[in-house]
Write a structure and sequence with these properties.
The protein has 155 residues and is of the alpha+beta class. It has four helices and nine strands, in the order H-E-H-E-H-E-E-H-E-E-E-E-E. It comes from Flavobacterium bernardetii.
Length: 155
């Protein structure tokens, strides 16, 4: 009986580890987005711009260092946009490919998306006109040359 109980506890811990907490926004609806046309087409043209956009702690250079350690297995050169939400606490979710692409370009963008989902969670949330942190969409633009991230920047 003890072995069965131990096995049950072990399996339940494994299941919890495989299902991280879902992304939760601080408000019922995300009302803000950075000014990027491709992203707005995906998340809504009617969203307002925040007073300040979400930013990565350490800036773009620190973010680029992360992506330089995660090359893609391709000899292609391409650009892609990956959008995501940053909630008022700096947590990330609602990841999406904001650029248009089909076939191989879509497949490569999906690989970039998977790397983005694993990036360190070091984001400062956007702020509204009254200076309070708010949920907002952000977008990162990538240029990949021969599988290496050559340009990484956000709005």
């Amino acid at each position: 009986m003890k072995k069965l109980l131990f096995l049950f506890v072990l399996l339940s811990q494994y299941a919890i580890a495989q299902n991280p907490k879902p992304f939760v926004t601080c408000s019922k609806k995300i009302s803000y987005t950075v000014d990027d046309l491709n992203l707005r087409k995906k998340v809504g043209m009617d969203l307002a711009f925040p007073l300040s956009n979400p930013t990565y702690f350490g800036g773009e250079e620190a973010l680029k260092k992360y992506f330089l350690t995660n090359p893609l297995n391709t000899s292609k050169t391409f650009r892609t946009l990956i959008g995501f939400a940053v909630n008022c606490k700096g947590k990330l979710g609602n990841f999406l490919i904001a650029s248009n692409g089909e076939g191989e370009m879509l497949t490569l963008s999906e690989q970039v998306l998977e790397i983005v989902k694993k990036m360190p969670l070091k984001w400062k949330p956007a702020t509204s006109a009254d200076g309070k942190p708010v949920d907002s969409y952000q977008v990162i633009q990538f240029t990949i040359v021969n599988g290496k991230f050559s340009d990484v920047y956000y709005k």
